[in-house]
TrEMBL record:
Keywords: Hydrolase, Metal-binding, Multifunctional enzyme, NADP, Oxidoreductase, Riboflavin biosynthesis, Zinc
Gene3D superfamilies on file: Cytidine Deaminase, domain 2, Dihydrofolate Reductase, subunit A
Listed cofactors: Zn(2+)
Pfam family, one: RibD_C
This protein's name: Riboflavin biosynthesis protein RibD
Amino acid sequence: MNDIECMSLALQLAKKGCGFVNPNPMVGAVLLKGGRVIGTGYHKRYGAPHAEVNALAGCEESPEGATLYVTLEPCCHYGKTPPCTEAILNAGIRRVVVGSSDPNPLVKGKGIRFLREKGIEVTEGILKAECDRLNVVFFHFIQTGRPYVVMKYAMTMDGKTAAYTGDSKWITGDAARENVHKDRLRYSAIMVGIGTILADDPLLTCRIEGGRDPLRIICDTALRLPLTSRIMATANEVPTLIATSCKDLQAQQPYLKAGCRILSLEQVEGHLDLSELMTKLGTEKIDSILLEGGGILNWSALQAGIVSRVQTYIAPKLLGGSGGKTPVAGLGVPRPEDGFFLTNIEVTHLGEDILIESEVKPYVHGNY
């Protein structure tokens, strides 16, 4: 096997940790000796041993003189676990092949430098683009201290997210909805506005077998979440946080008693300060959010500059009606050139539906 093949295998292994390692990165490792794979491993769960240690522990023979392929630069500091660089050195590894460099200030080239200083050959940048993409959430979070926000919505080909009656079940088909549940597993939290709760009474859970429910974040400025909602009925089972500007302690009591957490925020132009919310969530190590809100919350999130990625599910149907809901509401921009520009477009077919994924182009000093 060559470097590309071994790193490809390491990438596939890394993906197995999706949804269980946050806010840590997904990492895979492969050990090659004499042209044969003698050990593999991946980071399985936050706080558990890292990929390199798992690969060494599962070796079929002595790893001395072997080559280690790892999707992310090995750590060189004590955290939840000891540094992987020490384990690599002690195992007698001859060569280390790295996909991504680690932007974490505690690592950031120090792991690679340590290995080279100890006489271990290091090759960098093998399948770097693929390895970087795997951990876009981790890179964003470790560099900003704020969650990576993915704004997701489903609409028809005429841009409607619901019929004029408000009925939205279902815009897309089974394959698209299954993909949404995979993302609910992948990202740490799911966020909606009170309007979505009042209209749909959703559960906001992950239906993937063996999966993990995301933290449910309800943006509810005036604390109107119905005590009879399915969110309230399951708050003791699924972590639930209500972000609100209501400071009435008596009004908060039923929600606290039901098992919800309440996070008090200030308002900006009559809405919750979403930038402040992101900062507070970051301190709680919430590294990523799937934003499944309605048009008003989506507009507020874009205005606040917190959206990094947009997922647009498009169904091959037309609903019509001037009263049909659209994915982004609010006041809107006065001119097309003032819009939020998207880049790095990717298109995926999911059954009869289409998923368009794109990154929000940063807005700096009046220019994109």
